[in-house]
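Sample intake sheet
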Amino acid sequence: MKQKLFKHLAAIAAATGSGLALAQSAGPDMSALTGSVDFGTTLTAVLAIAALLAGVYVAIRASKIVLAMIRGG
Protein backbone atom coordinates (compact mmCIF):
# COMPACT_ATOMS: atom_id res chain seq x y z
CA MET A 1 0.00 0.00 0.00
CA LYS A 2 2.79 2.41 0.92
CA GLN A 3 4.70 1.63 -2.25
CA LYS A 4 1.64 2.41 -4.35
CA LEU A 5 1.19 5.69 -2.49
CA PHE A 6 4.85 6.61 -3.00
CA LYS A 7 4.55 5.85 -6.71
CA HIS A 8 1.55 8.16 -6.99
CA LEU A 9 3.31 10.88 -5.04
CA ALA A 10 6.41 10.52 -7.21
CA ALA A 11 4.29 10.81 -10.35
CA ILE A 12 2.58 13.94 -9.00
CA ALA A 13 5.91 15.47 -8.00
CA ALA A 14 7.36 14.77 -11.44
CA ALA A 15 4.35 16.31 -13.17
CA THR A 16 4.39 19.47 -11.08
CA GLY A 17 8.16 19.74 -11.29
CA SER A 18 8.10 19.79 -15.08
CA GLY A 19 5.29 22.35 -14.98
CA LEU A 20 7.33 24.61 -12.72
CA ALA A 21 10.31 24.32 -15.05
CA LEU A 22 8.16 25.53 -17.93
CA ALA A 23 6.74 28.38 -15.85
CA GLN A 24 10.23 29.80 -15.30
CA SER A 25 10.85 30.35 -18.99
CA ALA A 26 11.15 33.94 -20.22
CA GLY A 27 7.91 35.78 -20.87
CA PRO A 28 7.08 37.98 -23.84
CA ASP A 29 9.15 41.12 -24.36
CA MET A 30 6.97 44.15 -23.55
CA SER A 31 9.76 46.74 -23.61
CA ALA A 32 8.44 48.28 -26.84
CA LEU A 33 5.12 49.04 -25.13
CA THR A 34 6.42 50.12 -21.74
CA GLY A 35 9.32 52.14 -23.13
CA SER A 36 7.03 54.61 -24.89
CA VAL A 37 4.95 55.41 -21.78
CA ASP A 38 5.90 58.59 -19.92
CA PHE A 39 5.05 58.58 -16.23
CA GLY A 40 6.41 62.07 -15.59
CA THR A 41 3.04 63.82 -15.53
CA THR A 42 1.50 61.08 -13.40
CA LEU A 43 4.34 61.34 -10.91
CA THR A 44 3.90 65.12 -10.78
CA ALA A 45 0.18 64.74 -10.09
CA VAL A 46 0.74 62.18 -7.34
CA LEU A 47 3.35 64.38 -5.66
CA ALA A 48 1.04 67.41 -5.91
CA ILE A 49 -1.78 65.51 -4.22
CA ALA A 50 0.61 64.31 -1.50
CA ALA A 51 1.77 67.88 -0.91
CA LEU A 52 -1.85 69.05 -0.72
CA LEU A 53 -2.68 66.38 1.86
CA ALA A 54 0.42 67.28 3.87
CA GLY A 55 -0.65 70.93 3.83
CA VAL A 56 -4.13 70.01 5.07
CA TYR A 57 -2.60 67.90 7.85
CA VAL A 58 -0.33 70.77 8.92
CA ALA A 59 -3.26 73.21 8.93
CA ILE A 60 -5.41 70.90 11.06
CA ARG A 61 -2.55 70.24 13.48
CA ALA A 62 -1.74 73.96 13.76
CA SER A 63 -5.38 74.83 14.44
CA LYS A 64 -5.52 72.21 17.21
CA ILE A 65 -2.37 73.68 18.79
CA VAL A 66 -3.74 77.24 18.60
CA LEU A 67 -7.08 76.18 20.10
CA ALA A 68 -5.24 74.38 22.90
CA MET A 69 -3.25 77.58 23.61
CA ILE A 70 -6.43 79.63 23.71
CA ARG A 71 -8.11 77.21 26.11
CA GLY A 72 -5.02 77.26 28.29
CA GLY A 73 -4.34 73.56 28.15
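Comment: The chain has a mean pLDDT of 84. Residues 40-71 form the longest helix (32 residues).
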